[in-house]
Amino acid sequence: MMIKRFLLTTVIAILLTALHSTVSAQAVLETEELRLIVDTQGKVSNLFDRVHGVECVAGDQESSLLRVRSRGRFEIPSEMHWDGQQGTMHLVYSVVGVEALVKATVKPTHLVLELVSADPLDKVDAVQWGPLPTSITETVGEIVGVVRNEKYAIGLQGLNVKTLGGFFPNDEGLDTSRSQTTKAADWGSTLQAYSLDRSRPRKISVWNGSFPNMPVPPIEGETVLGSKIALFGCAATDALKRVGQIEVVEGLPHPEFDGVWAKESAEPGRSYLITAFSEKTVDEWLEYTKRANLACLYHSGPFESWGHYELSPRFFPNGIDGMKECVKKAEKLGIRIGVHTLTNFINTNDPYVTPVPDPRLAKTGTGRLVEDVDENADEIPVASPEYFNNTAANWLRTAMVGQELIRYGAVSGKEPWKLMDCQRGAFGTRSAPHKKGEEVAKLLDHPYKVFFPNYDMQHEIAIRLAELFNETGITHFDFDGHEGCWASGQGDFAVEMFAKVFYDHLERPVFNGSSNSKPYYWHINTAVNWGEPWGAGFREGMPDYRFNNQPLLERNYMPNMLGWFQMRPETTLADMEWMLARCAGYNAGFALATDMRAVRNNSQTGAILDAIRVWEEARDSGAFTDEQRERLRDPSREFHLEYDGEWRLYPFNLSEPLVYEEYVRQPGEPTAARWEYQHPDEKQPLQFYLEVIGEHGSFRNPTLEFDSFMRVAIQAEIAAGQRLVCDGTQTLRIYDGKGIQLKAISLPRPVPCISNGPHHLELSGEFVGDPAPKLILRIKTQGKPEMLAAAE
Question: Do 507 and 562 belong together in one domain?
C-alpha cells in the first residue's frame, strides 16, 4: 500500500511539473546563439549571449516584453502564462482588463514573436514591444535595429509594415528622428518597436502638429493584431549577414543586383551625375558620365508634373519611347538611368488637380456651406473657420467644393464666417454654383505649392511610378520628400507603405534613396545621399552635416554617401579634388549636379571629369591606407591624385596663418607686413589664400613680394568675409563666405615659382573702413607624392 501511494504521489508530482512547465512557468526560447527568457510577469529577464556566455540584459531597467496602450496610457503585464506545447505567452493586463496572446516561434537564426490576439481588441489602441534593455553600448544602429560590441550583436527586426521600429511617439505614429529601433542609453541600449490600431476613425494632429484636429479615415482591418518582430543574437561580424537571412526567411524585401544582396554590393555606393538631359543631349551627357566613370545619369526633373509623372515633351518629345531609347544607350555603356521627383507631391497642373480635382486629395478638415453661392461669388460662407484659418501651414489657401477649387485670401475675423477674396475656378477647375449644406474641404498643402494624396490614393501613385520604371527600364530613383506621406495622417506607417507598394510592383530592383530613414524601408533602400549644394560652394555647402552623417550610415550598414555637389562654370579642379579627397577618406560616393552651361563653359571640365575617374577608381580599388584615409577626412587639408599606370597622392601643405592688421606707423614708414617664410617643398608656382576677416571694410590692391624682387600685384578689392585664392595659375578668384565665386581676376603674367628654403615675404595694400578688417594669409604648397596600390 505504501509503495502504491508513493508511486501515485510521484506521478502527480511529474504531471504538476509538466503542467507548470507548459502553462505557467517562464518562457525559455533559444537559438544556438541567443537565449531569451520571459518571466511570469512578462518581463525579459535574460538576453543571453550563448556564443560567449555573457548576459546582455541590463537587469536594473524595466523590461516588459509587450505593453498595451489603452485609454491614453501604456500598461505592463501583471501576469504571463507560458504554454510550451503551443508556443504561446498569455499576457494579462489586469489594470485595464486586457489579455493578449503572443505566439513564439524558434527558427535556426532567430526568434519570431507575433501578437495573435488581444481581448477586448477595442480597448487596445497600440502595442509596444519593449523597450528591451541591453548592456551593449559600443555601436547602436537606430535604423537597422542592431546593437553590437566587438564580439556580439543583438537585433530586433519588424517583420511587417505595421510593426514600426521605435518608441510609440504620438497618436499619429510619426517620429521625426532618424529612427529609434535601437536607442543608446547611459547604461547600454534598448530595442523597441510598436504598432497602432488604425482601423478606427481618428481626429489627431498631423505632420508633427502642422495640421491640428485633422480627421483621419480608418484603414479597414489595420489593428494591432499581427504585430510581429524577430529577435536574434550572433557574433558581431555576422550581424549584417543575419539580417539578410531573416529577410529571406520572413519574406522581407531583399533586393539583389547581379545576384548580390544590395547591402553587400559595392554598386549602391557608387557616385552619379545629375542633370536635365534630353533625347537630343543624352549622348553628350553619357560621354561625360563615362569619362568620369560614374554609375548613373540621373535626370533632375523629367516630368511634366508630379502625380501622374508624364514625361516632359521639353526633354522627351517622343515620350516613353524617347526615355526607352536613352535607357538603351546608357545600358550599352554600362550606365544606368535615374530620375528625380518628390515621392507623393502633386503639382497644381497635374490631372489629379485640374481640370477636375480628384476627391482623394488629402484634406486637413471639412466644413459646410451655410448659404447658396453662385459661380461668381467672391465670399464663401462657412459654418466654422476651423481648418481654413490655419495661418501656420496654409500656403495655397485652397478649398474644394464639389469639383471646384477655390482659393481665398483670408477668413473673416468673426461670425458670419466667410472665406474672403475668393478666386473661383482655381488651377483650371470650373467655377460653379453650390448649394447650402455642401461640403467645403480644406486641401492639405506645402511650401513647395503642392497638394498630396490621401492614404488610398498614394498607393495608386506608388504603383504608377513602378509601372513607369517597368516600362522604361529606369533603375535609379530617390524618395525625396518621402515625408510627404505624412499628409495621409498615418505617420511613418504611410512612409513605409509607399516604399513597399512601389517595391512590390517593380519587375526589377531599383537603386533608391530617401530624404527619410525608416526601419522597414531600410530593407528596400540601397543608399541615402544626404546633403544639398544649393547656395554654397563645394567646401561651404553643409560640410558638417555631410560628415556627421557618415557614422550614422556606417553603424546602420548603409553605404557612405556625401550628398549632392554642384559643378558650376567657375568650379575649379582644386574644389573638386577637395571633395574627392573627403569621399576617399570616408569611402563615400556622391552626386555631381550640373548643367550644360557649366560643363561647356568651365575651362577645366576635362580635367575635373578625369580627376573624378582617377579618384573613384582608386577608392573602389581600396588603394588608400587607413592612415591616408584618416588624413583625407580632414576638411582643412587638400590633396591631388594622379595616375599614369600607378597612383600618386600629393598632399598639400598650408603655412601657419600670417596675420596682417592695420596699425599706426611713423610718417614715411613702409606699411607692408613682413615675415620670414620657410618654403617646405620643391620649387613650384605660388599658391595662397588671402582672407579678409571682419564685419565691415575691405582690403584693396594686395601685393605680395618675395625676396624683394618676385612680385604679384593684384588690382582688386576684397571685402570683409571674402577670400582671394591663387591656385598657381594666372587666374585668381574671389569667393564669398559661402564659397560662391564672385569674381575672377587675370594677372598680366604668370605667378612666380617659389623654391625650397627660407624667403623674405611682404604683403602690402590699402585697408578700407573704420574699424578696418584684418588679413590672414596662408601659403599653399604641394608635397612629395605617396605611392598607392590597389588592395589585394
Answer: no
Cell numbers at 590, concatenated: 556622391
Q: Above 50 in pLDDT, residue 58?
A: yes
* 22 vs 20: CA distance, rounded Å: 6
The answer for 551, left when phi > 0, alpha when psi is -120 to 50, beta otherwise, is alpha
Pair (608, 691) in one structural domain: no
Furthest-apart CA atoms within the chain: distance in Å = 130
Model confidence at 540, pLDDT cuts 50, 70, 90, reads confident
CATH number of domain containing 379:
2.40.10
What is the DSSP code (8-state) at residue 21?
I
What's the confidence (pLDDT) of residue 685? Answer: 97
Q: What is the DSSP track for 384-445?
A: --TTTT-TTS-SS-EEEETTEEEE-SEE-SSSSPEEES-BTTGGG-----B-TT-EEEEEPB
Q: What is the pLDDT of residue 666?
A: 65
Across the range 21-39, mean pLDDT stands at 87
Rounded average pLDDT over 431-460: 98
Position 792 scores a pLDDT of 79
Q: Among the three residues 420, 443, 466, which one is the final residue of a domain in this structure?
A: 443
When pLDDT is cut at 50, 70 and 90, the band that residue 24 belongs to is low
- Compute φ and ψ for 628, nearest 5 degrees: -65, -40
Dihedral of alpha carbons 219, 224, 225, 227, sign: positive
Burial class of residue 467, CB neighbours in 10 A (0-12, 13-18, 19+)? middle
Report the pLDDT averaged over residues 173-179.
Answer: 96
Give me the CATH number covering residue 712: 2.60.120
Asked if residue 16 belongs to a domain, the reply is no
Q: Which residues pair with 32 in a beta bridge?
A: none
Within-domain flag for 218: yes
Residue in this structure with the C-alpha cell 470650373, named with its chain if needed: 430
User: Omega into 543 within 30° of 0, i.e. cis?
Assistant: no
pLDDT confidence band for 667 (50 / 70 / 90): low
Boundaries of domain holding 746: 658-782
Please tell me whether residues 702 and 617 are part of one structural domain: no
Torsion (CA) 204, 205, 211, 216 in degrees, nearest 10: -30
In the chain, the number of structural domains is: 5
Per-residue model confidence (pLDDT) at position 59: 86
Please state, as a whole number, how many other Cβ atoms lie within 10 Å of the Cβ of residue 433: 13
Are 98 and 120 within 8 A, CB to CB? yes
Check residue 655 and report its DSSP letter.
P
- pLDDT for 429-440, tens place per residue? 999 999 999 999
CA-nearest of 319, 93, 314, 68 to 196 is 68
Tell me which long-range contacts 43-50 makes (C-beta under 8 A, separation of at least 24): 43/76, 44/130, 44/132, 47/132, 47/134, 47/154, 47/233, 49/151, 49/152, 49/233, 50/233
Q: Are residues 672 and 638 in the same domain?
A: no
Q: Is residue 651 part of a domain?
A: no
Say yes or no: 417 and 483 in one domain: no
Does pLDDT of 441 surpass 70? yes
Mean pLDDT score across all residues of the chain: 95
Q: What is the CATH number of the domain that holds 459?
A: 3.20.20.80
* Residue 672 domain flag: yes
Which of 419, 443, 467 marks a domain boundary?
A: 443
- Judge if 338 and 483 occupy the same domain: yes
Instruction: Please give the backbone phi and psi of residue 535, each rounded to the nearest 5 degrees, phi first.
Output: 80, 15
Q: What is the C-alpha to C-alpha distance for residues 208 and 126, in angstroms, rounded to an integer?
A: 19
pLDDT at 638 over 60: yes
CB 703 within 8 A of CB 715: no
How confident is residue 665, by pLDDT bands cut at 50, 70 and 90? low
Stated pTM of the model: 0.93
Return d(Cα 370, Cα 718) in angstroms, integer.
Answer: 65
Q: 152 with 232, same domain?
A: yes
Q: Are residues 667 and 775 in the same domain?
A: yes
Which residues sit opposite 355 in a β-bridge?
A: none
**Given phi > 0 = left and psi -120 to 50 = alpha, else beta, which region is 502?**
alpha
pLDDT digits (tens, 9 = 90+) for 266-288: 999 999 999 999 999 999 999 99
Vertex 243: Cα angle to 241 and 248 (nearest 5):
95
